[in-house]
Amino acid sequence: MCAPASLPSKKSCAWCVRRKTMPAFEYEALDFGGKTKKGVLSADSQRQARQELRRMHLTPVRLSAPRSEQKAGAFGSQKTPRVKPGQLVMITRQLAALLGAGTPLEEALNAVAVQAEAGPARTRLIAVRERVMEGWRFADALAEDEKSFPALYRAVIAAGETSGDLAGVLDRLAAMLEKNRAIRNKAIASLIYPAALMAIAGGVVTALMVFVVPKIIEQFNTFDAELPFLTKIVVGLSNWTVSYGFFALLALAIAGVAFWQAMKQPSFKLAVDRYILKLPVIGRLARAIDGARFARTLATLFSGGAPLLDSLIGSQRTISNSYIRSRLDRTVSMVGEGTSLAAALKRADVLPPMLTHMVAAGERAGALSELLDKGAAQLEEEFDTASTVALRLLEPAIIVAMGGAVLVIVLSILLPILRINTLAVG
Fold it and tell me: Where is each Type II secretion system protein GspF domain found (predicted)?
């Protein structure tokens, strides 16, 4: 039998070549005690798979069709759905628990695949398990499906394989994925209510300007009276909305699509991201969330056994702001030249100063990973606090703006009515 290797060699032994061509079967069988057993095994045909189960003293109950076609579609097919982020977190957490309990990687992948629901996650885990059984490294097996397992995810696992603490690295990786996903979900959930409130407010004001104001103003025109200045302004806005509102919405939609396409250009995105960092509240929040993501990823990679320079490069990829990411290019170069990480980050001057101080303290104390985790936790707490306050202020601001717009429309209608009543009394 050939020895395991990081990547399969072209001069693989005959067993490995045959092993690659054997499809995988999912089975459900009964043991002597009547208990149901589930798992995955490799065989040339269903008949051979059933014979293998009987040799294992199991009675086959269900045996799936060969997974060869699904395996071919699992990696590289654009139509095959990728593993969802939530499923990836769960898979990582389960693998960490099983490996931490001493389960071999192949058996751990088999157990997680059996427990997963039928779909992309199970298909990919079965394919990864087959590669691992062929002698591939775990990270290299995951690399065949780059959409489901991002480069950063694979880099962390590769560091864990190198350090020999794959279970611990997977546990930290799962924690990092959970925190990043929690922050993202919280930000999205926090924006749902203000966005819905703005949409309702805009719809109410537009309906008043398009349907209510013109009908009422028609009644005033029969009196041939001079309208108040406020009423003239509202009538003018109403007429403009009726005549050009659709074209304004169309132009806004075109501008949005053009902006979205322009953001795909690196130079334009760099300029926009740099401007975002200068905004009073939004810029601070952007620095905090990118700093937290950077610090937590760097701590995960570095504590997993990856070299500092490689960890720094991997952490740089997680930053969403292109300006911060470009400034950190110089940081990577300085660290590669021997400069301390704290000095290089201070020279970049794009991440929160608190994080730089934490890095400096960690380098002095020899506890860089621990202090990076603490720095990330503080930045996440700062982001949560600032975003909560900002959103709580935004909601009443939208309500006040909507109330003010409705008040102006009502006053523009009431003022002519009061003037007509005064003229009638006189």
Answer: 92-214, 294-416
